[in-house]
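Dear colleagues,

As part of the handover before I leave the project, I'm documenting each prediction I ran so the next person doesn't have to rerun anything. This entry is a single chain, and its sequence is reproduced below.
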Amino acid sequence: MHYATIQKLIGILLVMFSITLIPPVIVDFIYAEDTSDAFFKSYLVLLLIGLVMYLPVYNNKGDLRIRDGFVVVVLFWTVLGLAGALPLYFYQPLTVSFTDAVFESISGLTTTGATVLSGLDSMPRSILFYRQELQWLGGMGIIVLAVAVMPMLGIGGMQLYRAETPGPVKDRKLTPRIAETAKALWYIYLGLSVACAVAYWLAGMNLFDAITHSFSTVAIGGFSTHDASIGHFDSLAIEAVAIVFMFLGGVNFALHFSVIRTASVRTYFMDAEFKTYALALLLTSVSVIVFLFVQGVYPNFSEAFRQGLFHAVSVGTTTGFAISPFAEWPTFAPVLLILASFVGGCAGSTGGGMKAIRLLLLVKQGQRELMRLIHPNAQIAVKVGKQAVNDKVMESVWGFFAAYVALFVIVMLILLMSGQDQVTAFSAVAATMNNLGPGLGEVAVNYASLPDYDKWVLCFTMLLGRLEIFTLLVLLMPAFWRK
């Protein structure tokens, strides 16, 4: 383990993160608010800690190995999760505990969108901007930037890329060099964010709301600057923009790159995972729309269509925006939406959940087992498109699924043991492990009513979801630390 290299990298990341506190100060200046002290204190603390970590080892030129990459990724999310809490904690009018500040920060950086705050409409815009910025940075920005600049720092980035990139296939690169891959992802992410902000502005949002909501939309985060979320605007045009960019944010960014390179949208429809992702959202949307209409939840089909489509895409992509309190619908619809979040987005996207490619592989594996019952001696390959899937990939998918279910049950039992009811415990774990945000029961609106112990447990599940379980669990194995 190259501890000096890890220390150097974490120091650099803290310094970089401290710089991201400058934009909220600019917002504070524009709107003449009184939050700059909280951000300035946080900036100084993080800058000082970062420099103290970096300067003693700045001459170190060691490369990252695979084990180092896992440590850096886990430290990245935990350390910056704690660091991101400082402005919220230092701004005294918020009156949040350190636990609540950390919960909000980790929720933002992991793009979960679970919140403990209320009264957003009257909150300083600099604080609102900062919450949205956390989600945007967490979606892809910081890691991609770090990987892009690593070659200049004498630190190789491929190991970090393998440890961070979500999904079962880790080694596919868009370009021959990892730094160029990171830049390609960054440009796509930035381009979608700008396009989303412009679309929101043209649809009727003011400039501040357009920019901040583009952050959380493309990042599949779900934070809003209003308590009523997207429902605050009561606009079909704004909801349509949100649906389009939530859907795009849940698509594999490597696939976006391929579409741009080939200049053909047909590339989307040639991808098996994209078709699975789109089909899952379509089936969820149709089911919810039909249910809302048949049950008479809304007076006409057009309103049922509007509500069902928006929430199916929002929850299915694990964004978490809302235009009405869907948790109050008859039980079938909200439970179906929560279950849809288990699929989530595509591998290589900013979405959460288990990822559409894993669902596809599990279904195909099930089909293969059924065929083996009919033809016991047949050699049957699992294929995605026309390409056979390596058995090691299938084993990793089954291993992930088993670990996911086991951890889900364990965490849910922990919440039940602490006194939560079944609906709250189930939905809270699902909403945090899938990086969704809103749940049912006591966590339908926010998580403020939960005891501190439960919030720390759910912080852990948010990290589990963002790091796709194994990246975090591998550090808990004694064998990982043996030489």
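The first strand starts at residue 383 and ends at 384. Residues 3-236 form one domain.

All the best with the project,
I.
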